């Protein structure tokens, strides 16, 4: 009970002689250090705000401007053309020398701010140019070369994560006519002539009547909103859903594929948790291209809270602890002591105390997390302990299972690893937290992330930093323990107490039953394709992403004998507060290409035509979504929008970004590749496919579907993806001399 006494700052008792007051100096010291740390963090935030606020200039450039103006004044020249004299007239200062210096400083500051504003506007205009993304691989036009040079000039010094926030352009509102045209092009190959004619008629009627009225409201919103989509996207796509977010919304990220840095669970937790807090504390470098970092603000100290009609995302400024789950018990693990971040070895020691704790769960405590896995329920009991979990920096599960690519059947072990990260036991993750770190018994780790507050690339940026810092900066000693010393005076992790009434335990059981049925229905397959990767694809002068998208559609066509509406996630973070846009990658060109390939009629002309077309913009779903939201606010019905927004995505795809910041060299350390991450199927009769292009010779695939659908099979679809990759390789490299390739060509002919 020592830690309980330490938590009390003072005690007093009433005696006949008066009040006996006893102060705990250790507790008062902790309070003082906590306040000191809080103010330090405020000062650091203020400093970072100033640095990013004056970008692309730097705070030191102000001093340079002031000195330059003063120097010119002492040479009896007036760089202000009389403005300094006018400022001097209105200054309430008696001494002429002070008036001159102060007026010069004020003029210099105004000049400096004007230069910053001008540079920021120029950079904003430059960042509005996006044609560089659509140029053929290996070729760069003179326009793009000039643009790249100007961006480097106006970007100035090395940008940080939030540096570009004030310079990013706003997301433009496309014309209704253009959006409808692109939409009709994307659905034409999926409908018969009669259906397409009906949809064309609905679209024409919408464009001529309701469309322009709804468009006017969107343009009005775009005038005052930083992004006319993001707030509606977060609320209506994510927060208003009343079904389970486990499997249906949350996604996961995996550990290194071939390497487990240490087999000790507590040690891996020590480095992982310490690295995560280093990411929160440090000024992390930005990504290679200027992207909006607004989503990064809610990585830590964030929880999705259930509501009656809609959930809410709550974010707290700071949290110095993590919530830990182990064998049905919940703990508060403080990551700071005396105002300093615990060393990895100290975190390992604290985690080991949790692992060695022999106490049993309270009634209802073990499966409490199921409340976040089933339908969205409001639970008002146990407020204090729930509050502790929700305000934690993030959630941690110390899992008793062993996962990873291991055993006699590594392929099956990867499938189990994916399902464990996606849903676990349905009660040993806190699916409402911004992200939950999972540390397995054999030292493997991974994470599960909630989707409403941010998109996968933001979490991937954090996870890439954590994995790289764990192995290449922090490291382990020869015994597998974390490096460093341990402060023996650290208080033990605090066990959370619960008083869960019977009616709440019933809700837990009901939620667990719903979640368990959902988890059992998920069919998952993860595999790595190593025959070739983006290195060979780039030799074809083809975008690797366009190549893989065609592979996925070819495999689906061979599986189902038809094409389907295909969702490909695409970032809009090139714009301020951008989220995710939809690319409808199944097009007239891709369908014609696949039909010709299956009929043995593909020629160079058709091949080049398809991949050239793939470089054009196909985005329109965000615009249609916002038009639909406006129509609902106005209380008007649109048969066209109702049909568009109800179409099922039977093939939902996303690419997991790799090496957003190059923290280590994959060429020299090829074994430290991550397997990426994945998500559950979007449609009950469809597939969810996540893929990551790793290095030059490896592509990882995560495929999900549902056992309850007799038409889907993740392993069968995975085999078709492998074959489609090899077939397209043969198409572009017909002179392969490898005997195995020749056999594949013969197999294709026999098909």
Automatic annotation (TrEMBL):
Location(s) in or outside the cell: Mitochondrion outer membrane
Pfam (any one): Carn_acyltransf
Choline/carnitine acyltransferase domain boundaries: 171-722
Catalytic activity: (R)-carnitine + hexadecanoyl-CoA = O-hexadecanoyl-(R)-carnitine + CoA
Keyword ATP-binding: no
Transmembrane intervals: 50-74, 101-123
Active site: 451 (proton acceptor)
Keyword Repeat assigned: no
Protein's recorded name: carnitine O-palmitoyltransferase
């Amino acid at each position: 009970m020592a830690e309980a006494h330490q938590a009390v700052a003072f005690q007093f008792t009433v005696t006949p002689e008066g009040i006996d007051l006893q102060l705990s100096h250790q507790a008062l010291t902790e309070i003082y250090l906590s306040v000191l740390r809080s103010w330090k963090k405020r000062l650091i935030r203020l400093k970072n705000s100033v640095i990013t606020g004056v970008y692309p200039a730097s705070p030191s450039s102000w001093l340079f401007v002031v000195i330059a103006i003063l120097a010119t004044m002492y040479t009896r020249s007036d760089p202000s053309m009389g403005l300094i004299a006018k400022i001097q007239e209105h200054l309430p200062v008696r001494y002429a020398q002070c008036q001159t210096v102060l007026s010069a400083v004020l003029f210099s500051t105004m000049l400096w701010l004007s230069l910053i504003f001008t540079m920021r506007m120029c950079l904003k205009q430059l960042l509005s140019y996006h044609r560089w993304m659509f140029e053929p691989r290996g070729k760069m036009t003179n326009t793009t070369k000039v643009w790249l040079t100007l961006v480097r000039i106006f970007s100035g010094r090395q940008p940080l994560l939030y540096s570009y926030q004030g310079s990013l352009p706003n997301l433009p509102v496309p014309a209704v006519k253009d959006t409808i045209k692109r939409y009709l092009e994307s659905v034409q190959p999926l409908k018969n002539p009669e259906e397409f004619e009906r949809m064309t008629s609905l679209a024409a009627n919408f464009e001529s009547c309701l469309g322009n009225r709804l468009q006017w409201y969107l343009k009005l919103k775009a005038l005052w909103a930083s992004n006319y989509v993001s707030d509606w996207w977060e609320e209506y796509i994510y927060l208003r859903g009343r079904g389970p977010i486990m499997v249906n919304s949350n996604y996961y990220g995996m550990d290194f594929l071939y390497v487990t840095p240490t087999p000790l669970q507590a040690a891996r937790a020590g480095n992982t948790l310490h690295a995560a807090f280093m990411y929160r504390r440090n000024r992390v470098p930005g990504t290679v291209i200027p992207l909006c970092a607004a989503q990064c603000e809610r990585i830590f100290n964030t929880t999705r809270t259930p509501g009656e009609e809609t959930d809410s995302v709550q974010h707290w400024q700071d949290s110095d602890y993590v919530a830990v789950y182990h064998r049905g018990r919940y703990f508060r693990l403080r990551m700071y002591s005396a105002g300093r971040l615990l060393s990895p070895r100290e975190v390992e020691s604290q985690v080991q105390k949790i692992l060695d704790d022999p106490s049993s769960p309270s009634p209802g405590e073990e499966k409490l997390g199921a409340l976040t896995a089933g339908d969205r329920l409001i639970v008002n009991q146990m407020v204090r302990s729930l509050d502790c979990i929700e305000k934690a920096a993030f959630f941690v599960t110390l899992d008793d299972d062993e996962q990873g690519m291991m055993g006699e059947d590594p392929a099956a072990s990867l499938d189990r690893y994916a399902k464990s990260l996606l849903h676990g036991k349905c009660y040993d993750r806190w699916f409402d937290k911004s992200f939950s770190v999972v540390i397995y018994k054999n030292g493997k780790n991974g994470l599960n992330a909630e989707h409403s507050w941010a998109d996968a690339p933001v979490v991937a940026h954090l996870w890439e930093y954590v994995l790289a810092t764990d192995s290449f900066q922090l490291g382990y000693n020869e015994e597998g323990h974390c490096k460093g010393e341990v402060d023996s005076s650290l208080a033990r992790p605090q066990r959370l107490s619960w008083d869960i009434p019977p009616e709440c335990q019933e809700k837990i059981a009901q939620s667990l039953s719903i979640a368990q049925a959902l988890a059992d229905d998920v069919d998952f397959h993860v595999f790595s394709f190593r025959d070739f990767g983006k290195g060979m694809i780039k030799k074809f002068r083809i975008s690797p992403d366009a190549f893989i998208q065609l592979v996925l559609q070819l495999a689906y066509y061979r599986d189902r004998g038809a094409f389907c509406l295909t969702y490909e996630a695409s970032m809009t973070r090139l714009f301020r507060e951008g989220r995710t846009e939809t690319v409808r990658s199944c097009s007239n060109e891709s369908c014609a290409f696949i039909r010709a390939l299956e009929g043995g009629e593909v020629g160079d002309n058709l091949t080049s035509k398809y991949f050239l077309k793939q470089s054009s913009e196909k985005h329109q779903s965000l615009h249609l979504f916002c038009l639909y939201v406006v129509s609902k606010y106005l209380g008007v019905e649109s048969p066209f929008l109702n049909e568009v927004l109800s179409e099922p995505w039977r093939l939902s795809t996303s690419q997991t970004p790799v090496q957003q910041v190059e923290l280590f060299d994959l060429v020299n350390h090829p074994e430290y590749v991550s397997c990426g991450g994945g998500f559950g199927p979007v449609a009950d009769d469809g597939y969810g496919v996540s893929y990551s292009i790793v290095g030059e010779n490896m592509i990882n695939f995560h495929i999900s579907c549902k056992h309850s659908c007799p038409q889907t099979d993740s392993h069968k679809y995975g085999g078709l993806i492998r074959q489609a990759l090899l077939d397209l390789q043969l198409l572009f490299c017909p002179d392969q001399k490898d005997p195995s390739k020749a056999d594949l060509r013969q197999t294709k002919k026999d098909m």
